[in-house]
Amino acid sequence: MKSIIFFIVCAISSIITIAQSTVGITGIRDTSYNILNEYNKHLKNYPGIQIAKETSYPYVKEEKNIAYCKTPQRELKLDVFYPKEKSKIKRTAILFIHGGGWRSGNKSMHYPLLQELASLGYVCITPEYRLSTEALYPAGVHDIKTSIRWIRQHAKQYNIDVNKIVVAGHSAGGELAAFMGATNGMKQFEGEGCYQNFQVKPMQSLISMAH
User: Which end of the chain has fewer beta carbons closer than 10 Å to its terminal beta carbon, N or C?
Assistant: First the structure.
């Protein structure tokens, strides 16, 4: 069964890669999908909705715009939210991927959620990844895989349990999160990005949650 699933994933990926067109590669990142635009779009039908506000917890540390790898297109960055308090118990890491149809969106969209989760004791990471106007599939997949390897590389620094890495996301980010779990340990989806010495092994724990 595992061999059949592996074959199907590889076959579909090969077909999609061959069928892709470079016409949409403009090098310009689409910023139309953002919290304010979504708020305005849904306000008429849901007049009671509010934009979640960021919370600055004194016991949560935030590190933003950390470069985790450099691609032919640009430098990729991520943000980390984690408890300041030292703990003898290693913490669970949550990698949260933003949505936007693979074309738009940005890593700052879910700051309030990640701040709350960090206040509960989790180490939260939200990465950039190359969108469809920057590079063809599976570039974004490779970028997220690289960010997972970055977590493993820096596990000691942030007191992370490498056997407890959760990958979650919103919309397209949820799809990417599910893809991480479905292709866990498949070398062809790892890409040639940074931290190759931290390739994910098939039996290593990687929990994916799509939303």
Answer: N
Q: What is the pLDDT of residue 34?
A: 96
Count of domains observed in the chain: 1
Using DSSP's 3-state secondary structure scheme, residue 98 falls into coil
Confidence check: pLDDT of 8 > 50: no
Round to whole Å and give the CA distance between 24 and 21. Answer: 7
User: Does residue 153 lie within any of the structural domains?
Assistant: yes
At residue 73's C-alpha, the angle toward residues 70 and 78, to 5°, is: 45
- Assigned domain for 99 exists: yes
CATH code of the domain containing 133: 3.40.50.1820
Alpha-carbon distance 133 to 24, whole Å?
6
Whether residue 5 is contained in a domain is answered as no
Compute the distance between CA of residue 85 and CA of residue 60 in angstroms, rounded to an integer: 8
Phi, then psi, of 153 in degrees rounded to 5: -65, -40
Print the domain residue range for 78: 24-210
Kindly report the pTM of this predicted structure.
Answer: 0.85
Partners of residue 167 on adjacent β-strands: 95, 208
Residues 25, 103: Cα–Cα separation, whole Å: 10
Cβ proximity of 147 and 95 under 8 Å: yes
What's CA 149's distance to the chain center, in Å?
12
Residue 4 lies in a domain: no
Q: Are 81 and 62 in contact (CB under 8 A)?
A: yes
